[in-house]
Write a structure and sequence with these properties.
There is one protein chain. This protein is elongated. Helix 4 packs parallel to helix 6 (about 95-105), helix 9 packs parallel to helix 11 (about 170-180) and helix 13 (about 195-205) packs across helix 15. It is about 50% helix and about 0% strand. With about 240 residues, it is mostly helical. The chain has helices spanning about 20-30, 45-55, 65-70, 70-80, 90-95, 95-105, 115-120, 120-130, 145-155, 165-170, 170-180, 190-195, 195-205, 215-220, 220-235.
Length: about 240
């Protein structure tokens, strides 16, 4: 048998001898935003930009368009700082894997995803799991979706304000919301604001929620005293 050929070593990339290049590399390694002050050619250099976004994902805004369209660069940027998605090329803002990296880091990054991805359940569910309030950036179709809205209000009750009117009048959804944040009662429908169990849960979680209760419950002294006492028991264990 013949001898196996040794794998050829890939030539190492030569270091740029320009001292200014070394200087900017050192700067962006400790402050990615320093990319802003780099000369234009450096803003298109893969190594320089990658070093910058590893330190600060938002440094992507200072990169040239060719780097903002580079999937590897953008993925690192949004993994570090989800909102860096705002500076990615349109094609990458429409890339599900890139968008998932962004919303898992910061759910509100959903704002910068494409319309298609704002209507993609997997992406929106990941966003609301990280930050329920990001529901406001989801498509209208998904703000009517019980599973999506429930996930959002369980993470942050105030997300109820971005749900469809139908779900803001759904007892189970509203209960999940006020159990997480009593003041979410503000966004419930009038019928839910007059629901004794829901208002009780809201006031137990946050006594200030009583101001959003329906008139009859708000003026019911026995109810309010009972709700405040139960709230104190929960808060102070008395």
């Amino acid at each position: 048998m013949g001898k196996k050929k040794k794998a050829e070593k890939k030539p190492e990339k030569e270091r740029n001898p320009d001292p200014k290049w070394e200087e900017i590399m050192a700067k962006v390694a400790i402050n990615g935003g320093a990319l802003k002050d780099a000369v234009d050619v450096m803003k298109s250099d893969f190594d320089v930009v990658m070093t910058a976004v590893k330190q600060d994902g938002l440094a992507l805004q200072f990169a040239n368009p060719d780097m903002q369209a580079n999937k590897a660069i953008v993925t690192v940027a949004v993994t570090n700082d989800g909102p860096a998605l705002a500076y990615a090329a349109d094609a990458l803002r429409n890339n599900e894997k890139v968008a998932l990296c962004a919303v898992r880091q910061n759910g509100s990054s959903l704002e910068y995803a494409s319309l298609k991805l704002k209507d993609t359940r997997r992406v929106v569910l990941a966003a609301v799991a990280q930050n329920g309030v990001s529901l406001r950036f989801a498509s209208e179709a998904l703000r009517v979706d019980r599973e999506v809205v429930t996930a959002a209000v369980k993470q942050n009750g105030y997300a109820l304000g971005s749900a469809s009117r139908e779900l803001r009048g759904d007892a189970a959804v509203v209960m999940d919301a006020v159990n997480q944040y009593g003041m979410a009662l503000f966004h419930a429908t009038p019928k839910m604001k007059s629901n004794r169990e829901i208002v009780l849960a809201a006031v137990i979680q946050n006594s200030n929620a009583i101001e959003y209760a329906g008139h009859a419950l708000r003026e019911n002294e026995n109810f309010t005293i009972d709700a405040f006492e139960k709230g104190a028991e929960r808060k102070f264990g008395v």
